[in-house]
Hints:
Layout: H1 3-23, E1 26-39, H2 62-78, E2 91-97, H3 100-107, E3 117-121, E4 131-137, E5 141-149, E6 153-154, E7 182-183, E8 188-195, E9 198-206, H4 214-238, E10 244-249, H5 257-263, E11 265-266, E12 278-279, H6 281-287, E13 293-295, E14 298-300, E15 303-308, E16 320-326, E17 359-366
Parallel strand pairs: 1-2, 9-10, 11-12
Antiparallel strand pairs: 1-17, 2-4, 3-4, 5-8, 6-7, 8-9, 10-15, 12-15, 13-14, 16-17
Helix pairs in contact: 2-3, 4-5
Amino acid sequence: MKIKNLIAVFFVLFATIAVNAQSKKYIIHTVAFYNFENLFDTINGPNNDEEWLPDGAMNWTGRKYKKKLDNLARVLSEIGTGENPTNSPTFIGGCEIENRRVLEDLVKQPKLINRDYGIVHFDSPDKRGIDVALLYQKKHFKPTSYANIPLLIYKNQQGKEDKKDKGEATDDNVEIDNTSERVYTRDQLLVTGFLDGEEVNIIVNHWPSRSGGEKKSSPFREAAGALNRKIIDSLIKINPDAKIITMGDLNDGSYNKSVKVGIGAKLKKSELKTSGDIYNPFEQMAKEGNATLFYRDSGDIFDQIMISEPLTRNDYSSLRYWKAGIYNKPFLIQTTGQYKGYPLRNSQSEPGFSDHFPVYIYLIKQLN
Length: 368
């Protein structure tokens, strides 16, 4: 066959594929996670919130609180709209949340109020009173059950101290009860319900920090990974084809033992062998040098969203994973000074967005 004829055949085939692709229609749902970084109100509560009061160290006034809410609402309204321009995320997992009141204020912000977000939130035993929560669009998701599952960890589980590693500078210091020696940290939030008629299970996490050093605190996060795996296994036992999404600020990377061994997360979809296997799309992103936070000029991805094998299958007549991303638009990035290139976080003078970038995945389903 002459070269001109080969070229002609190629263009005919390409056009046919393009037409077929365009004829298929999909519904897209964005699932996002964002560390809200100290979303405190200005009211003195029962938790250790003295720093976040008008007369506290952060001089946290009503004006600053309102600005923080507006900043967060802007981000949340825009995550995922590159591929899904008509809608903000269907699900938003969040952490570093003082109480339900701040979430009620957040979802009433002008940029979010029309989305009509529902709230699932429990007060956790964390000493600072910061919790995890799930926001969901009521028109798409109908929760049927939810529970806060405690992470029981104790002082004697700590690893050996590495004198070279004093831990990250963080507000999220580990606090230990002097009587029981229990380390009070965030519960893991499990929400089950129906997303456009299909059952979906979502776990929201904020694992123990690296306060005291990575090595010393690692057993706490390993315990968190093991608890996460236990929750996943219980869901799979009830329904072998359970669609499970586990997400959060893990304070560990995708390569750490808490994730690789505790949850058993896989780098590639081809490694998934059973319905209980978990795929982590953010591991490859980390290998490529992407980051959701920085410390001492070193970036990592602590914010991750992982999915169970049924969400990775190729039959798009049911909800399936499509792709993942980190939302790091220029307005979220510090442009000057020592922390140029870092997420634009809170300062003593002005509210920022967060010290983390949010992450997201898309779920899609073919309509015809």
